[in-house]
C-alpha cells in the first residue's frame, strides 16, 4: 500500500513519539514537523485548540476568477434569490462555471455554511445561463 499523505497528532507528546515509532517500524515514512498546511488547508495550533481555514486558497480563487474587488457578503446567498434559466442572458463559459463550482465545493472543507448555496449553483452546470 502506498499512502501519499497522513497526519496525526495528540495532546500528549509521548503518545506522538510512540505512535511515530510504531509507524516508522512498519512503514517507510518521514516526519515533517508541526503541521501548518495540508492539502490546501491552513492549520493553526494553539493552547485553545486547532483552527482550520483556507484564507490563502480563497485569495487564490478570487485572483483566478478576477474577483479581487468583490465585496464580502453577510450570507452566502440572499434568502430571496431564485435561480432559473434566463434565455436572454449572455452565454456563460460552462468550463469556467464548472471550475468555479468545483473550487467552491473544495472551500466547503472549512466553510460548511456555503454548502447549500454551492449545491444550488451546481445544479446549473450543464447550461449555466
Fraction of residues in helices?
25-40%
- Quaternary state, please? single chain
Radius of gyration: 20 Å
Distance between the termini: 45 Å
Number of separate strands: 3
Strand line-up across the major sheet: 1-2-3
* Percentage of residues in DSSP E strands: 5-15%
Average pLDDT number: 86
pLDDT below 50 for ≥5 consecutive residues: which ranges?
none
State the main characteristics.
three-stranded antiparallel β-sheet, 2 domains, 129 residues, alpha+beta, 4 helices, 10% strand
Q: How would you sum up this structure, described in words?
A:
Residues 1-78 form the Reverse transcriptase Ty1/copia-type domain. Pfam families: RVT_2. This is Reverse transcriptase Ty1/copia-type domain-containing protein. It is built from 4 helices and 3 strands. The protein is elongated. It folds into 2 domains: 13-52, no CATH class; 55-122, no CATH class. Helix 3 (94-107) runs antiparallel to helix 4 (115-122). The chain has a 3-stranded antiparallel sheet with strand order 1-2-3. It starts with 12 loop residues before the first helix and ends in a 7-residue tail after the last helix. It has 129 residues and is an alpha+beta fold. Strand 1 and strand 2 (41-46) form a beta hairpin. 3% of the residues are buried.
Quick overview:
This protein is of the alpha+beta class and 129 residues long. It is 36% helix and 10% strand.
Summarize the helices and strands and which ones pair or pack.
Elements: H1 13-26, E1 37-38, E2 41-46, E3 49-53, H2 55-64, H3 94-107, H4 115-122
Antiparallel strand pairs: 1-2, 2-3
Amino acid at each position: 500500500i502506498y499512502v501519499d499523505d497522513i497526519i496525526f497528532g495528540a495532546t500528549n507528546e509521548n503518545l506522538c513519539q510512540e505512535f511515530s515509532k510504531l509507524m516508522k517500524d512498519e512503514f517507510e515514512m518521514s516526519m515533517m514537523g508541526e503541521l501548518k498546511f495540508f492539502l490546501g488547508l491552513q492549520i493553526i495550533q494553539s493552547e485553545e485548540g486547532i483552527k482550520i481555514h483556507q484564507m490563502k486558497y480563497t485569495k487564490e480563487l478570487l485572483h483566478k476568477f478576477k474577483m479581487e474587488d468583490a465585496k464580502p457578503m453577510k450570507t452566502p446567498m440572499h434568502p430571496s434569490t431564485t435561480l432559473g434559466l434566463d434565455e436572454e442572458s449572455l452565454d456563460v463559459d460552462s468550463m469556467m462555471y464548472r471550475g468555479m463550482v468545483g473550487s467552491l465545493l473544495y472551500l466547503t472543507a472549512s466553510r460548511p455554511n456555503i454548502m447549500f448555496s454551492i449545491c444550488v449553483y451546481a445544479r446549473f452546470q450543464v447550461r449555466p445561463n
